[in-house]
Amino acid sequence: MLQVKQLYKRFGGLQALEDVSVSFGQREFIGLIGPNGSGKTTLLNCICGLYAPDSGRIRYDETIISGMRPHRIFKLGIGRTFQISKVFNRLTVMDNLKIPALTEGKLSRRLISERAIDILKSIRMENLRNAPAGSLSGGQKKLLEIGMIMMIDPAYLLLDEPFGGVHPELKSQLEAYLSQLHSSGKTVILVSHEIPSLFRLCKRLVVLDHGVLIMEGDPETVRKDERVIHAYLGGVRET
Amino acid sequence: MKRFFLLLLLGCSAAFPLFFQDYWLYVAIIALYYAILSSSWAMLAGQVGIISFAHAAFAAVGAYTSALLSIKLGWPVALGIPAGAFMAALFGLGIGALTLRMRGPYLALTTLAFSEIFRIFLTAEYELTRGSYGLQVPLVWEGNKIISYYLGLSLLVLTLLSLSLLLKTRLGLFLLAMREDEDGAASRGVNTVRYRLYAFIVTSAFAGLAGGFYAHVVGLVSPRMTMISEMGLILAMSVFGGLETLIGAALGAIILQFLTEYLRDFEQWRLAIFGGLVLFTLRFTPEGILPRSYELVHQMLERVARK
């Protein structure tokens, strides 16, 4: 269980997160939505350790992870992808995949290569294994990023805009892959503006607006909620 | 083609003392000192992304350690030089542990501050270091230039081979990933502070190795070794040769060292010419002369093959 409790994060004059409390249970498929600048990516950055929250707590099972460094959070089993893909452009696809597994130091190089090839097969990029990651398309980079975190078989996947700028054909491949990961027992937290995809994949949506959690529930309830409609269509938030 | 080019370079370097003696051989020995410094600095800046201004100071740590061990305790040069490298690695560990959580200009400024503090220490501690007069150091093989030259060449080959092999290990892969995207690497399990520290320690050790070598071939170590102008020279040599290739940086050091000597006739204008050349390189081949030379030779060979 991943629990966020009374989380605050401020950047200068901007309150990016304000009293955010939310839980992400095991084997859930959750959508994290909200207008631009609502704090979705900041929340992911706090969870994965890139930002230290100003106050509040993030707990993963029995461990307090708020303020912990990113590599340690990753090793606990929380993998993260980025809105603008952070693949290592000048390294090959295979080397990109090997890095997360090599940091673990548990597997032999042969086993790591075997696992990387299995992942490449599942994301249908086997023929690109020796290509520099910089030569991949935007969609392929998004798939590679997910492949990279899958190398350590994490329990939680935090995916920031995985469908952004992705070709429709690749998007359906990506959706199928995410469904497959969820079926295999992973918890997926998906930040996206792709409402149709979110409605197809997620059982629960969490809505942020101006750094405040305004609503959570099943997609149908969220779609009809006045506060959510107001947040997306504009206007001043009621306090 | 790269291998052929490297073998040709090594062959020419090995044959150098057959054709040049005395003054130009001495210039080559000093060029080898700068080549070790530039290639190890290029590893740090070009491969890891750490801009340190303490590299010349680490060379001075190695030089003074080796000098003091041989003067005060009578250690042979063969032990003094590695001891200097070890001491520079220890300093690298200390400075790195303090500074490597910082990024960008903060890290650069802190290393610059260390470098200045160390220079002031060397100048002020007269009883130990003879201050700005410097220490007279026993020479390698009683000052035999040919032996000094081959020792320098061996140390340069050792530096380039070790650092190149290091880049092919697990640590090397992490360093390359961190250079590409530090947050990305950290989010995939790479302990970025630890591996930056490892790289800092290793490159500091090679700077110390170069310093130890310098002490015993020049016969004098002084606080001038840590001056900011020395650091500027190392930086210019690395950029001129190619920051992202270790051999390129070494080659840049050798070419610029010879050029500086060749331009002595121009007196005060030589530094202006030197600076202009570096600016010219940055403007037209920002990746350095070695990668550009590879390209030109490759294009030339293709043209010949077409004819």
Overall mean pLDDT of chain A stands at 91
Count of separate DSSP helical elements of chain B = 14
What would you call the quaternary organization? heterodimer
Question: Could you tell me how far the N terminus lies from the C terminus of chain B, measured between alpha carbons in angstroms?
Answer: 19 Å
Largest sheet of chain B: 2 strands, antiparallel
What proportion strand of chain B? under 5%
Give the number of helices of chain A: 9
Biggest sheet of chain B, strands in spatial order?
1-2
| Form type of chain B | globular
Order of helices and strands of chain B: HHHHHHEHHHHEHHHH
Q: Give the terminus-to-terminus CA distance of chain A.
A: 30 Å
- Total beta strand runs of chain B: 2
Strand order of the largest sheet of chain A: 6-7-8-3-9-10
H and E string of chain A:
EEEHEEHEHHHEHEHEEHH
Classify the beta-strand content of chain A into a percent band.
15-25%
Provide the helix percentage of chain B.
over 70%
- What Rg of chain B, in angstroms, do the CA atoms define? 19 Å
What proportion of the residues of chain A is helical, as a percent range?
Answer: 25-40%
For the secondary structure, the number of strands of chain A is 10
SSE layout:
The complex is a heterodimer of chains A (239) and B (307).
Chain A: E1 2-11, E2 14-24, E3 29-33, H1 40-47, E4 55-60, E5 63-64, H2 70-76, E6 78-80, H3 93-104, H4 109-122, H5 138-150, E7 156-160, H6 168-183, E8 187-191, H7 195-201, E9 204-209, E10 212-217, H8 219-224, H9 226-233
Parallel strand pairs in A: 3-8, 3-9, 6-7, 7-8
Antiparallel strand pairs in A: 1-2, 1-4, 4-5, 9-10
Chain B: H1 2-19, H2 22-48, H3 55-72, H4 77-99, H5 104-124, H6 126-129, E1 135-136, H7 145-167, H8 170-180, H9 182-186, H10 192-218, E2 220-221, H11 228-241, H12 246-262, H13 269-284, H14 289-306
Antiparallel strand pairs in B: 1-2
Helix pairs in contact in B: 2-7, 2-10, 2-11, 2-12, 3-4, 3-5, 3-10, 4-10, 7-10, 8-10, 11-12, 11-13
